[in-house]
Structures are given as C-alpha cells and as structure tokens.
Design goal:
The protein is α+β, with helices and mostly antiparallel strands. It has 7 helices and 6 strands, in the order αββαββαααββαα. It starts with a helix and ends in a 7-residue tail after the last helix.
Amino acid sequence: MITRRATLGFLAATPFLSSRAMAATAEIFAVDNVAIRGADPVAFFTQAEAIIGSAQHSLMWKGAVWHFASAENRAAFEADPMKYAPQYGGYCAFAMSKGAIASSVPEAWTVYEGKLYLNYSTNVRSIWIKDIPGNVAKADANWPSILQS
C-alpha cells in the first residue's frame, strides 16, 4: 500500500516541473541529447537489464540520439522503434501518472505488457509497481498533451 507519507516524500524529493513551466517540452527525455542516458532500449527486452550502449551503434529518432549495445539491437529498434522506445518519451512514468514531468534513470525500469516504463529512481519505481495498471491509465490520460499544456 502506498502511504500518504511515501507519496508526499516522493513529491518533495522529485524535481517536477509543471506542464505550464514546460511548454513545448521535448517529446523525448534526453541528457546531452542522448535518450535513456545512453542505455540500449532493446536490451531491456532481450537481456532484462539496463545496458549502456555505444555511440558507435547509435541513431537519431524523434530528435534524440539513441545508443545500442550492438548493430543487431540498433537494427531491431530501427525496424520497430515503438516496440522498444520507453513510454511517455522516457520521462518518469509515475510522475506522468500524477500529471507532472520528471526525469528518469535507466536503472529504474519496468517492462509491463510488452512496454518499457522508466522512473525517476528505484525508490519511485517501488511506488510505481504497486499499481502499474492504475498508474498506466492515469499516465496515458496525461500523455502527450502534457508536453504542450
């Protein structure tokens, strides 16, 4: 059960930016223009872990550079990017469920019903996973309109 104290603690510790403050926010969360902080999005599905990719195996998609651990993973992503790209542009899925935007880290990942979700931290992920279906429904209702609000 998610306690009010845990939720309030998360909200206080997370650098949320309101949708108004983030007008025209980039569709893909990227640090130095690199999506998922350099982690290979395909590896979450094929190796069930966050693996840092290489600029040697990279491509540009939706305005961000995506790194891959191998040419095979890059080819898989290129053939079907929507299958591998994180939901909500790689922004924190739990924050999105609350109507806010927050950064994410590759270590705080979940694959649920064939989709990749990232969170702000592993502590936030522990809250997220307590009600993934409910959180997904709420986040889906906010995405992608939150980017332009």
